[in-house]
Design goal:
The complex is a heterodimer of chains A (512) and B (339).
Chain A lengths: L20 E10 L2 E11 L4 E5 L6 H8 L7 E6 L2 E3 L4 H7 L1 E4 L11 H5 L14 H15 L14 H14 L4 E5 L7 H16 L3 E5 L3 H7 L2 E6 L2 E7 L5 H9 L17 E10 L3 E9 L3 E6 L5 H8 L7 E6 L2 E2 L5 H6 L2 E4 L3 H4 L7 H6 L7 E2 L2 E2 L1 H15 L15 H13 L5 E5 L7 H16 L3 E5 L3 H7 L2 E6 L2 E7 L5 H8 L5
Parallel strand pairs in A: 3-8, 3-9, 6-7, 7-8, 13-20, 13-21, 16-19, 19-20
Antiparallel strand pairs in A: 1-2, 1-4, 4-5, 9-10, 11-12, 11-14, 14-15, 17-18, 21-22
Helix pairs in contact in A: 8-17, 13-14
Chain B lengths: L24 H22 L7 H26 L7 H14 L20 H25 L3 H19 L5 E2 L3 H6 L4 H19 L1 H11 L1 H6 L4 H27 L1 E2 L7 H11 L11 H21 L3 H26 L1
Antiparallel strand pairs in B: 1-2
Helix pairs in contact in B: 1-12, 2-7, 2-8, 2-10, 2-11, 2-12, 3-4, 3-5, 3-10, 3-11, 4-5, 4-10, 7-8, 8-10, 11-12, 11-13
Classes of the chains: A alpha/beta (512), B mainly alpha (339).
Chain lengths: 512, 339
């Protein structure tokens, strides 16, 4: 994809036309996915350059390359006119590139001052840390930025919002020429957002270049001078912020051609299997309501952090809800643990199979049988032969590629591991199947097979919820799509109304 | 279209042709190797056989049985992702409680002058239950408070030892009934140990509870999501280990024909060492009772061998420590190669 970015007109006379930072033809691949494909981009001093795009578009990967965390497979980076090869985040910092991460990298058991200056503390004549200078420096920095936090308190005692301000101050303290901010307002309130924007304004006036990643439309139009859109690992377009409006922004973010064919068949949709009414959990989500019918595939879309997984975790009883109710076949039922959920006929394929799905040290058979043991025991003894036959049967049906049931599951490919987990749940013959990103980290072939499986299950009458960050997948598989935004439901789209634009509009919190 | 016939026709049965070498082979070879080494050294240094010595072997095997009983329980705890440092102290406490109810009349000093000549089932049950209660407390605290098992069982280790001392204000207990002393006579402790090992080997391998332990130790969050009652299973495994430790306490005091609050010192470390040498990973999710049995034997052979050769007991400890580290390194190496 050729670079469509335009050289920005110098906003003020003293700024040079050449970009302070340029990336040329960057390519970065991870096992199974190409995160960045032939990406080139120019960043100019004295301007705020926003980066937008869906989950997985490549924004964070690009920024991590610029900050020295990842190394590009191909391509070159140029900073202040010269070609550079960053060896580490420290290297990037020393050259004048600092990054504020989405996940805060702060040490809760050290003070605010220690956190900011970690690794570059002022020393006294004996070589020991000069704590008075440490606190003085921090005080000075905070005064400059208008932050009112005591440098000597433990970081862990601060609210998340305050911690984010500390992280921002830390990045600014490097006095770098290029400052990258990855979703800096995800955890802070409006008051702090304004404060942050003031700080950004000052940095911009000082001639710093700022890259600002965000999902929030309103912020972008408030703060950005230029906007770049990324999609599927490509840099799509860069224009001055005032040349965009919300609809054109959304269109650029999702405007891909839909070439993938999904095996969605006509399925008779039955009665309501699960009615979710005003479900809420403190700190997770609020006021979530939707119906799920037998035979239906209900897609759940939304940006990262919108609360989709949290809702499903509550329905499945991992973190039970504080308010609202769940009605199964019309009857109210409290689900306070995964066991209760399984007894109610629900199955839940989690988002991250490595952390909450697989028992890596166990075999394929042992992984598959674990949830079905309760029903296959005599006085606590497992009816192993019967279980093995069921598991082998599942392997055949789901086309799991494995030398045998005793193969250690770690040796299987991601797609086959996912199938084994799916088999685990299907052995219980669930009435409601919740899938959280079922094809993440799965190769193309297995992906198609899993899609076919899902539609087949719907045909057999299973009620299916599918969370997915891939718009084509959500659109191709779902009968209806629940879209979440900022921890609540922003809309439910029937298949006919669901386009990439409408989904992204709702996911960004805008009205249709 | 991809060839979907990549599965062997019936994968529910392990392929009959390849007989997989049992996991314990390597440590079995180590055991045999060490035994033979001592045999050779025995002839060189002392001109006599190390192995062909029924008395010596019996003593060794009796000591192995005491540690082994504890190791069976500790192995299950480690498989489930936990650890237990309190075993040695609980042995002492159980020995004291059991001993105090196993005394015979006619010799003067008795702990409970009204409770003499009780049927042997009473002290045995009391000892086993004491251990079980300690295990139950361990498990409950770990599950309910979320405090790491290391800390909770460390606390129990200290408290149980203190309670054992307090029980008779430091006085040893002796003068047991013949029935009680009989428990520790001959090779009965060995039979008790092997029976326990068999029972729990079967439990780990063939019951749902056993499989749940491996799951919890391997990935506790995945276990939770899969519908396993993690808390319940953990309390159960700590309690079972406690019961086994209590039984060990009974055996130790019966065999020694006395109960003293200083008994069982560092038994917990020997038990953990036996489990680890036997292939149980301290990270959890991996381990077998059979391995722990062989591990206990290895420790026992080394101990006996050194005593047989007249080597300083301090050197024994050093060598034991080195062997434990070597066993874990070998285990890591084996795992890395299997990837």
């Amino acid at each position: 994809m050729t670079d469509l970015s335009m050289r920005a007109e110098p906003a003020r006379a003293q700024h040079v036309a050449a970009p302070v930072f340029a990336a040329r033809r960057i390519r970065k691949a991870f096992p199974g996915v190409i995160a960045l494909d032939d990406v080139s981009i120019d960043i100019h001093a004295g301007r705020v350059h926003a980066l937008m795009g869906e989950n997985g578009a490549g924004k964070s990967t690009m920024m991590k390359i610029i900050a020295g965390i990842y190394f590009p497979d191909h391509g070159s980076l140029h900073f202040k006119g010269e070609s550079i090869a960053l060896k580490s985040p420290r290297d990037a910092l020393n050259r004048g590139i600092a990054m504020i991460h989405q996940e805060l990298n702060l040490l809760p058991y050290m003070t605010v001052a220690e956190n900011i200056w970690i690794g570059r503390e002022p020393r006294n004549l004996l070589g020991l840390i000069d704590h008075r200078a440490l606190n003085r420096q921090t005080g000075g920095l905070f005064a400059q930025l208008g932050i009112e936090i005591d440098p000597q308190v433990l970081l862990g005692s601060l609210s998340i919002a305050s911690r984010q301000m500390v992280e921002i101050a830390k990045a600014v303290s490097f006095d770098s020429d290029l400052l990258i901010m990855d979703e800096p307002t995800s955890a802070i309130t409006d008051k702090e957002v304004e404060h942050l924007f003031r700080i950004i304004g000052e940095l911009r006036a000082q001639g710093k270049a700022i890259i600002y990643i965000t999902h929030k439309m309103d912020e972008v139009f408030q703060i950005a001078d230029d906007i770049s859109i990324f999609r599927d690992g490509h840099h799509i377009v860069t224009r001055k912020a005032k040349e965009f409006d919300k609809p054109s922004l959304i269109a650029a973010m999702v405007g891909r051609e839909l070439t993938q064919v999904f095996p969605k068949m006509e399925v008779e949709i039955g009665k309501v299997a699960l009615a979710v009414r005003n479900l809420g959990r403190r700190g997770g989500f609020s006021n979530v309501s939707f119906d799920l019918r037998y035979g239906e595939i209900l897609g759940v879309a939304g940006l990262m952090g919108s609360g989709r997984t949290e809702v499903m975790e509550s329905i499945f009883g991992i973190y039970p809800a504080d308010e609202g109710e769940l009605l199964f076949d019309g009857k109210r039922r409290a689900i306070r643990s995964p066991q209760q959920a399984i007894a109610a006929g629900i199955a839940f394929l989690t988002e991250d199979r490595k952390s909450s799905g697989l028992f890596l040290q166990l075999s394929v058979g042992e992984n598959m049988e674990i949830s079905a043991l309760r029903r296959n025991c005599v006085l606590g003894f497992v009816r192993q032969k019967r279980v093995n036959v069921s598991c082998a049967d599942m392997c055949r049906q789901l086309k799991v590629k494995t030398p045998g049931l005793q193969e250690v599951i770690e040796n299987l490919s991601g797609g086959n591991q996912q199938k084994v987990l799916l088999a685990r749940w299907l052995l219980n013959k669930p009435r409601i199947l919740i899938l959280d990103e079922p094809t993440r980290g799965v190769d193309v072939g297995a992906k198609a097979e899993i899609h076919t499986l899902i539609t087949q299950l719907a045909r057999e009458g299973v009620a299916i919820i599918m969370i997915s960050s891939e718009l084509p997948e959500v659109m191709g598989m779902s009968d209806r799509i629940v879209v979440m935004h900022e921890h609540t439901v922003s809309g439910i789209l029937p298949c006919a109304m669901a386009t990439q634009e409408t989904i992204m509009t709702l996911a960004s919190g805008e009205q249709l | 279209m991809r060839n979907s016939a990549v599965l062997t026709p019936d994968i529910s049965r392990p392929a009959a042709r390849t007989w997989r070498v049992p996991q314990e082979t390597s440590i079995l070879l180590v055991l045999i190797g060490i035994a033979l080494a001592f045999e050779a050294l025995g002839w060189i240094e002392r001109g006599q056989s190390f192995l062909y010595n029924p008395q010596g072997l019996l003593i060794m095997v009796l000591r192995v049985s005491e540690i082994g009983l504890i190791a069976v329980g500790v192995t299950m705890i480690i498989i489930a992702g936990g650890i237990d440092l309190s075993s040695g102290s609980v042995v002492a406490l159980s020995a004291m409680v059991a001993g105090s109810l196993a005394q015979t009349s006619g010799y003067g000093r008795a702990v409970f002058p009204g409770l003499l000549d009780l049927p042997v089932l009473v002290p045995v049950a009391a000892g086993v239950l004491t251990g079980g209660i300690c295990g139950l407390i361990n498990g409950s605290l770990i599950v309910r408070t979320g405090v790491p098992p290391f800390i909770v069982t460390l606390g129990m280790m200290v408290s149980a030892r203190g309670l054992a001392r307090y029980y008779t204000h430091g006085q040893p207990i002796s003068m047991f009934t013949d029935a009680y002393s009989a428990i520790g006579s001959g090779a009965k402790p060995v039979a008790i140990f092997l029976l326990a090992a068999l029972v729990f080997h079967i439990l780990l391998r063939y019951t749902r509870f056993g499989k749940c332990l491996y799951a919890i130790g391997g990935n506790v969050q995945a276990a939770r999501v899969s519908g396993i009652g993690v808390g319940r299973n953990l309390v159960a495994v700590y309690t079972i280990a406690g019961l086994l430790t209590g039984l060990a306490g009974v055996v130790v005091s019966a065999r020694a024909q006395t109960s003293q609050s200083g008994m069982g010192m560092s038994y917990e470390l020997d038990a953990i060492a036996a489990a680890v040498i036997g292939g149980t990973s301290l990270a959890g999710g991996v381990g077998r009772i059979t391995g722990a049995v062989i591990g206990a034997l290895i420790l026992g052979v080394i101990s006996s061998g050194f005593t047989f050769l007249g080597i300083d007991s301090y050197i024994q400890e050093i060598v034991k420590g080195l062997i434990i580290v070597a066993a874990v390194i070998a285990d890591q190496y084996r795992k890395r190669r299997a990837r």
